[in-house]
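Dear colleagues,

As part of the handover before I leave the project, I'm documenting each prediction I ran so the next person doesn't have to rerun anything. This entry is a single chain, and its sequence is reproduced below.
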Amino acid sequence: MSCFLRGLFYFTGMENQVKSPAHQESLIPRQGGYRHLKTFQIAEIIYDVTVRFCDTYISKRSRTHDQMVQAARSGKQNIAEGSAVSGTSKKMEMKLTNVARASLAELKGDYEDFLRQKSLALWENEEPLRRELVALKPENADQVAQWVLQVASRYGRYGLNGKTIQSIPSMVLERKAFPEISANAMHVLIGVTMALLDRQIKAQARRFEEDGGFTERLYRARQNFRKSLRSNE
């Protein structure tokens, strides 16, 4: 595992996201609350930025445009839907969470394809800009866009053959620097979300092993009810 991924949870403050709640028997446990999940929060940013990215750099007539937007939306929506059904189906919760991860993996590949086909650089795992973005903890698409602008202002240090920003015509800068930084930023945030979803799925599996599914809880509830009736006779 790279230093970037080892430090990922420290930088994002997400290390406590998927800890199991205290055990409490309930027929239909608390469900929903997905807006408090870091995975959903970052997936929502990824969706919003992807819509802007595709509208700016990919023709709306291209099938890739729709596929990337739908993959980003699927990542966000399936996290929400998985959380919403968690009370009655842990199996479906895990399935939908895994669908969200698969959609984001597809989107990550699309950004890699974009960079390769445009002859733009894909940042290495140890690229300092990766850590910089993660440490920023962006809360919305506007903050990501502002960061891209800030990085572009000093981008000669990192790309475009080492040229300073002043030596690059604005048209060339727009064609190269901004899409390269934007695509890499999404690549980073998608990687963060996928790593967190891996932990989330493992936590969901542990809770299923500990508490069982809805059918098992229903059986235990009926057994407890019958015991209470007998004890009152």
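The radius of gyration is 22 Å. Residues 32-225 form one domain.

All the best with the project,
I.
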